[in-house]
Amino acid sequence: MAKPTKGMSFSQWIMSVLMVLPSLFNIITHVFALIDQEVRAAGRGLLHLVLLLIVTATLLVSIWFCVLALLFMYLTTEWHLSWHFSLILILILNILLLVITALIIARVRDTLSLSTAIKLIKKETD
Description:
The chain is mainly alpha-helical. It has 2 domains: 10-80; 83-126. It is built from 3 helices and no strands. It has helices spanning 10-77, 83-111, 115-125.
């Protein structure tokens, strides 16, 4: 903005200030348009990531079913176990893996506490 000088009258200074305002609004409009484009691009990227995670999870489940089917075939043909006992062993394996996974999740959840971040925020506000 132009400062009023000795040679500039008040009305000329007001006019120079008024001429700056459209440029300022134009810049603000462009900044908001850029922010809008970035948010849309981030949303598309997040959507692609979620879709890829769903596909990955589906493929992992199908691989796990194949592994269990192979284990069932191995137990019934190579070890000559009955199909009842083979299914019970596979069920026990799945329950054991579920418990191990639950324990790992509980341990990770405990380490993800935000108490340190909360303490830092309180320290900064005091």
